[in-house]
Amino acid sequence: MTTVSNLLRASADRAVPVLAAIRDDELDAPTPCADYRVGDLVNHLFQVVVNFQGMARRETADWSSTPDVLGTDWRARFAAETDALVAAWKPESALVGVSVNMALPQLTVGRMALLDLVLHPWDLAAATGRPFTPDPASVTDLHVLVDDLGPMPRQMGVFGEEVPVPADADPFTRLLGRAGRDPQWTPHATA
Q1: Which of 145, 116, 112, 139 is nearest to 45 (CA)?
Q2: Contact, 28 vs 128, CB < 8 A?
Q3: How far apart are CA 116 and CA 131, in angstroms?
Q4: Local structure of residue 188 (DSSP, 8 states)
Q5: What is the CA radius of gyration of the chain?
Q6: Per-residue pLDDT reduced to its tens digit, 106-123
Q7: Quick check: 32 and 44 in contact, CB under 8 A?
Q8: How many CB atoms lie within 10 A of CB 122?
Q9: Which CATH number goes with the domain that contains 156?
């Protein structure tokens, strides 16, 4: 069985180059997440990665405001923060019990961190015209998570309405559609 920390590691290894390649002049570009520009999504992804580190240790996470990391060496820091995320979810104890913040099983919470670490790098790659190939094992695991979560992410506004994709679409394209993302989205479509 592949552990959450292994999936996080494989996904972080794919996410870090995406963020490292973002140029300052791309920070105001639109993303597939209508409420976020590239810079906003970078800040949000940092908030997710840092908060989910604490949630692995059953610390209370603060989601009330999104910190602004853009004036820092955020590209290098993202690599360090994802390393810390992987390490935080490595102990078996991180996956046992119920989350303090979400009242969900810790395993589900760890997989939610994985969901953000797969979807948001795709959002950023699509927004900046770069390729992104997710870890296949993570995509498989995330389909199970989306099944387990049912309508909750949509009801909470985390996912948009499901985007139809062809029946023979690859697993990642299907995951994007399930998460309310248009796999064909381009920045030109919103300009």
Answers
A1: 116
A2: no
A3: 17
A4: G
A5: 16
A6: 999 999 999 999 999 999
A7: no
A8: 24
A9: 1.20.120
What is the pTM for the complete model shown? 0.94
Q: For 22-151, where are the alpha helices, taking DSSP H only? A: 38-56, 74-88, 106-128, 136-149
- Residue 54 CB contacts under 8 Å (≥ 6 apart), including other chains: 60, 61, 88
Chain segment 41-51, per-residue pLDDT in tens: 999 999 999 99
pLDDT at 190 over 80: no
Neighbours of 44 (CB within 10 A): 19
For 82, the token pair is 């994802």
54, 59, 61, 67 alpha-carbon torsion, rounded to 10°: -50
By residue range, what is the domain housing residue 41?
A: 4-189
The answer to whether the beta carbons of residues 8 and 116 sit under 8 Å apart is: no
By residue count, the chain amounts to 191
Window from 108-122, 149-163, 169-183 with minimum mean pLDDT: 149-163
Provide the number of structural domains found in the chain. 1
